[in-house]
Amino acid sequence: MKELKEHKLLEAAAAVRENAYAPYSGFAVGAALLTDSGRVFVGCNVENGAFAPSLCAERAAVAAAVAAGEREFAAIAVIADGSDYCYPCGVCRQVLSEFCDDAFVIFAAKTVRDFKVYRLEELLPHGFSLREDGE
User: Fold this and answer.
1) Which of 35, 42, 129, 132 has a beta carbon 3.0–4.6 Å from 70's, enabling a disulfide?
2) What single-letter DSSP state applies at residue 31?
């Protein structure tokens, strides 16, 4: 993936982070998901006082893409308000594994210009699957 595309994806994640609803944690997160067809879907975290119904930015982006008919994803950029890199939580990693192959790329970012790149398999080496082929 070329640097221009990386930064464009990170900028989309940073922009949607501004819409996060995080009154309890104060930890706003934005995610921008690139599909194999080249479309970008964004999501931000949406907290809830009961916590369990809260929605992470990554899962919000996945839900938007699935609702639009997309099922194959190429990359996701994740950026938060904190001073450290923002990695998808375990639940988000598992959700991403439902739609992604081993080529899927995750950009965990401190800023649009300061990020690390991972394959999903590195962050979720043995994800759960009901598929018969085990993938």
Assistant:
1) 35
2) E
pLDDT tens by residue, 10-38? 999 999 999 999 999 999 999 999 999 99
Structure confidence at residue 3 (pLDDT): 56
- Domain-wise residue ranges, the chain: 3-123
Tell me the one-letter amino acid at 35. T
Helix axes 3-17, 57-67, angle to 10 degrees: 110
Full-model pTM: 0.87
Comparing CA positions, the residue from 61, 66, 68, 129 lying closest to residue 101 is 129
Whole-number Cα distances in Å, 48 to 15, 31, 56, 99, 104? 22, 18, 11, 26, 30
Question: What burial letters (b/e) apply to 20-35, b meaning 16+ CB within 10 Å?
Answer: bebeeeeebbbbbbbb
Strands 40-44 and 115-119: unpaired
Architecture of domain 3-123: 3-Layer(aba) Sandwich (3.40)
Contact assessment for residue 30 and residue 20, using Cβ atoms and an 8 Å cutoff: yes
Is 18 catalytic? The answer is no
